[in-house]
Amino acid sequence: MKIPVSGFVIHSNDSNSEHSHELYLTSWDGRQLHTHHFAGVTSFNAGHDHQYAGMTEPAPSGVPHTHYYFTMTSFNDGHKHEIRGVTGPAIPLPGGGHYHQFHGVTTVNGSHPHSHRYSGNTSSS
């Protein structure tokens, strides 16, 4: 079975012998896909907090949906944490478009093992 897909590839100029390409899908089986930016600051735990930013994975437009997300926090106090999860459902905006809420707990890390809470809203689309 063939599924029509469109998108674009970005070539990495990394000098490493193992290079990669990033594939960004813009449509899947005739449905337009979209992403959202997300960013914020974690809770203040163990004497510090972390900043984070990223982009959700693509999802179809015009239907009920959520987005997976993943990023790493800033390097603070000698370590960083992983953030990953699934956004809540789309929340419509009065003028059109929508956004998603997200929240969770980072991975445990640090010389004194701990985690941080995080939450926020994605950008609108």
Automatic annotation (TrEMBL):
InterPro entries: YmaF. It comes from the Bacteria. This is YmaF family protein.
